[in-house]
Amino acid sequence: MSDHDESNAYSNCKSDVSVCARARARLPAIAEALIDHCRTGECFTHVDDEPLPAESRVIDLIEKFREVLFPGYFTREKIDPVNFQYYMGQTVSLLYDRLAELVTHNIRHDCLRYDLACSDCEKRGREIALIMLEAVPELRGLLAGDVRAAFEGDPAATCHDEIIFSYPGIYAMSVYRVAHKLYDLQVPLLPRIMTEHAHSVTGIDIHPGAVIGERFVIDHGTGVVIGETARIGRNVRVYQGVTLGALSLPKDAGDRLRGKKRHPAIEDDVIIYSGATILGGDTVIGARSVIGGNVWITESVPPDTTVLMEPPRLIYK
Question: Which residue from 58, 135, 237, 306 has the fewest beta carbons nearer than 10 Å?
Fold first, then answer.
């Protein structure tokens, strides 16, 4: 390279550095403008002494729960009869600490953000964490029923292990069963974050407030929606694309209908095939009924009823 070329390269480098410096010099003013905009109320912010739960922490909590709900299935380490007691003690201890901390943060978040009366956040967080761990046998029993029902109704399943490892419906129900218990214990925010994570992973959207009985099966699962006030009995099976939702809501629905029954009730032993939409808080699907694919229901169905669409007329050209 000639002296002239070296001189040009040096000049270009200096010019690039100067351009970068001028651009970065504008950043403080941009940051100040963004801060000022936050004060206008035109955007949602959460700049507070009590942090919101990080998504990664919630995902970690879900995975720890799955380890104790299905021991030996979702651990990186080998679990055998020799180390099982040590493993369970260590896992329960870690889960307790993480759960107590997250629950405490969520309770304190609401307390500070909404100026609520003090509810002894730390004590409540630890008590709720203990209640949740003591409920693990109950949750295991419910999930075992879900797994067995899935196996009994699916000839494509070769074993229970396949269902536990790979069926999205079981993942969604595992998260839901834990989140629903937290919801019943009036833990704010955390249950919804948990079920929305399961929604993002599986495509199955179950509100933690829904009440779902034993031996519930979601076959395939993608696109299933189960609303907050839905009530589902025992031995119910739903297929992909099923919606248990609310009727069209007015503009002020958030304030007027919050906490009221808006979603249907499904009684025992009902089967709902893919694409069915069942809407309304007064709608009841009677026991042992079969709801065919792609139907739209906004009124109650008596027990032992089959509801089907008329076969469409196919056109071949």
Answer: 306
